[in-house]
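Exam review. A common question shows you a sequence with its structure tokens and asks you to describe the fold in words. Practice with the pair below. Do the first one on your own.
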Amino acid sequence: MYVRRIIPLERELEQHSILLLGPRRTGKSAYIREQAPPHRVYDLMKSDVFLRLSRRPALIRESLEADDRLIVIDEIQKLPVLMDEVHVMIEETGVRFLLTGSSARKLKRTHTSLMAGRARTRRLQPFVYPEIEDFDLQRVLQFGSLPPVYLSDEPEEELHGYAGTYLQEEIQAEALSRNIEGFSRFLVHAALWNGEVLNFEGVGRDAQVPARTIREYYSVLEDTLIGTMLTPLSTTGKRKAISRGKFYFFDIGVVHALSGSFSVPAETPMLGKAFEHFIWQELFAYHQYFARRHGLHFWRDVTGAEVDFVLGKKVAIEVKSSTLVHDRQLRGLVAITQQDDHAIQRRIVVCREPRRRRTSGIEIVPYQDFLSDLWSHRIL
């Protein structure tokens, strides 16, 4: 069963080459097969293909035929030297390339020139709200929306396999084989700190790893697309903003697999954190697919007033899992308008209330309505 993806690449591919990044099993290969069928595919996960091209990278150029218009190289990070060949072919022929990768670490180090203008970089995320028929909020909050997990009859087993095989082995083998035990401890505690304002010393104490190493570990998670550091909205106004970031894993189900619990009891902090992460995934995917020119941040001042997300420096979004939002939960949205350097145009609480309402200029919006508005481009 194939679920049609909303990422708008087909039209871009008519004019541009694209580097499509995304964690393993987000559906890059299925997308290519179903929505952007190429004229030729080189899958570097296949050992014979990898060996041939590693011995002679020029084979792709030498094998070009007159009717080749779109060529796919799958898992390009396994053989970064091919980026030089792609560069030459983009410059000298009319061929477009769709390059896929599940890690940007090696590419960032050695082959940034291609990404700087010759190919547009895009990121594929797990399933998002408009892609899922008969959407099940509880299932997403427990197990996330990684395609093979969401579609599986055994989502826990899929996630345990993903966390164990991919995160514990591949990331460590690529970047941190010198201290596998320390990185394993870090992954567990990074999952527990998911969505919190980070304190590297605190994470380091929990994981028994030096704080300077913790910084490096978070960089590895970003480079391998396992998560994103959400930076604070800067301010020069009257209310001083906090400067440390928050880290969100790319999928809440992966967080639960790493932390060892898939339980999301009603009316508990665990539900609140999972619901916030769910909205983060939707906002981040929308930002990557349609609003890359707009910023996505959070805001928090030194008094503790906080807004979960600020989109485009115009829309302040607070996430509450409540079925009835109270005035005391609006503190952050009130505080952010008291600074004088950001023109916040809308203040929204995304929640589980059954109907929209408004109080003191703040919109209280059921998550279904918010996501329908977001993906219909009615939020910004």
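Now try the second one, then compare your answer with the model answer below.
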Amino acid sequence: MSMFGDRERGEENKFAHDAERLFRARARRDRKLGAWIGQKFLNLDEAATGAYGQSLLALNLEAKGDVNLIAAILERVNAEAEQLTEGQLIGQLDHFMIEALAEIEADDSKQK
């Protein structure tokens, strides 16, 4: 029974670690996305770009999932610039998520 309990605790710890890692990656991704959009489409200065990235993170925390995030970004950008397609945005989301996961992996490796 003890071996089963140890295995169960190990699985729970792995699940918690993976969930925390995903949360951190999404936060990094959203900040990177905010910087990209702020600079490329909205012509925001550095401070406003950072604030925009934080607002994307907050939006993503309010409503889980990327659907609401994508809709909000497209609405704002296309109201001002009309240059961003949903396909481009999803491509950048994927790109920044890959970058964020790689950075977190590197950070975690340094800490070990």
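Model answer, second protein: The chain has one domain: 2-111. DSSP finds four helices and no strands in the chain. Full marks require stating both points clearly.
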